[in-house]
Amino acid sequence: MIKLTTALLAATSLALPSAAAADNHRQQASATGEAAPLIPREDLFGNPTRASGQISPDGKWLSWRAPKDGVMNVWVAPVSDPAAARAITSSTDRPIPQYFWAPDSRSVLYVQDKGGDENYLLYGVDVASGAERTLTPFENTRVELIGTSNRIKDKVLVGVNNRDPRFHDVHMLDLNSGELTLVQQNDAYAGFLADDNLDLRMAVRPNASGGMDFFPVANGEISTEPSDSTELEDSLTTQPAGFTTDGKTMYWIDSRGRNTAALVAQNVATGEKTVIAQNDKADIGGAMTDPRTGEIEAYSFTYLTTEWTATDPEIKASLDWLDDRLEGNYGVQSRTEDDSKWVVWNDPLAAPTKAYIYDRGAKTLTEFYTARPELEGAPLQTMHPLELTSRDGLTLPSYLTLPPGSDADGDGTPEASVPMVLMVHGGPWARDGYGYNSYHQWLANRGYAVLSVNFRGSTGFGKEFISAGDLEWGRKMHDDLIDAVEWAVAEGITDADKVAIMGGSYGGYATLAGLAFTPETFACGIDIVGPSNLETLLETIPPYWEPLIAQFHERMGNPNTPEGLAMLKERSPLHSADMIVKPLLIGQGANDPRVKQAESDQIVAAMQAKDIPVTYVLFPDEGHGFAKPTNNIAFNAVTENFLASCLGGRAEPIGDTVKGSTAQIVEGEEYVQGLAEALGG
Which of 61, 69, 367, 634 has the greatest count of CB atoms below 10 A from its CB? Predict the structure, then answer.
């Protein structure tokens, strides 16, 4: 599915604000937090000091991601001597996005792509020797981890699509020799589920209705008949979630016969299913399983905030102990195999995130690291969870952050209205959540209210909420965003002519739709890797998404029918580009496999043909979003100065950020304050 970043919706007039208007905006900002220190972009978006802390399964090693020569790499240290840290990877260009421990604790595995193309290969580093190898040495290939085992510690199951880019063949990977052995050639299936013996137990295949069929696998043979199926409405809220170690119980996240997805245990021998947990407002959001038995020990639901419930008494005692000592949000991100030690993350909400090592037996909590110590004491702001109501009665879970000094009594409403940025999440089959958000903090610090809305089609709130967004791109999904803006104006949070829209991926689409379809609603818009033409978007999806094409057609529109094609054209901002009258900033990665560069090129060309001003920033070494901190900071430098030009908020000067990145200003440097000067023009 399309997972993008965030988006802006803007509209009022192509011309930049007059000097008098800009002065008025700045006076307003001064009354609502101008005195607060300006948090440097580097502190918010540069490399964290440490991140992704883990403890090895055998409990002997700590690991984390941290900069090495300015690039995020993986570091390890003995638990007994954390000061003896060393980097075991040596990426010199792109940050390593994700890593994990091999089950035998002998090696660390990580994935990396090239230039943002999302063709992730798997690499392994032997902890003792430091020797590194490419475990999936193929070109134009994307690896998927299919199964790991508590008992077979030196092997994992992986899927690679080097034979046919549409399908991932399943291989057994020997982590020590590097040998790959074909287990299952795949010519039809979207995914597989394995047990603790690393035996395939289920194959998943999309069906014509947009749902999924689930086929049992026994002795290497895939059944010809599915044991379970879903229709479109349950396709995003029902899936198998794994087996217990003994293989006797299979867990499901399951919305069949109900609205929200429940946690269900199925007896494999009898087929009997038992509901463990369900919630009327939210889908099951997470679970903790015993590292040895695989049995569920705790589960969570996230509606506005996250709530955990433990089913195991010892886990409950540990979570209660942590709850008494940690403020804000927290969770367990790594556990030893014997479950004696945990790595716990803690988001205090208005302070930088920390990680701790929790010794359950000794009942000690030792600080592991602070992710961004430079934010200690910074004027970070509280995020307010709230429920908005759409024009047709849907409840829209949302989040609002206000500028420092604007809300003295802390009731979530500023004493005087402030400019606002509507941040639209990507997906659209994703959601916004509660907690520290670097974009909320950054924009609030610059003098803006920041509103994030879980519009219809967002996930986590039941299948009816998702289905309410079917075939509603640019219509009811967009209406929800407009309703949220109107609420903010009515509540005195902002003024109708001082709202920007911003987002990435689907959020970028929402920005373009906002400026093209409701051209007077937003003062300006910022589109990050957003599709402008839904027809070409569907024509150019990555090949490994092709098995899911029926679901895209059912939820977005089917270009193979006259009615569907007409709707896709109608909902494509490209075909209404001449309606845009407000300033627009576009950011795009040249290697984006999801939303191709042509999506941005097309709408920029259409606007140029009509002499409509647009600023276009292209990164030749990025994909679906900007992974390199220098590039992300450069685009955010342009963004905040673009917003200052449009809404009059505060901005840190662009300085050398753009010159120090790979950014290419394809069009419109004159429409962003200070950009031409920063480029030396």
Answer: 634
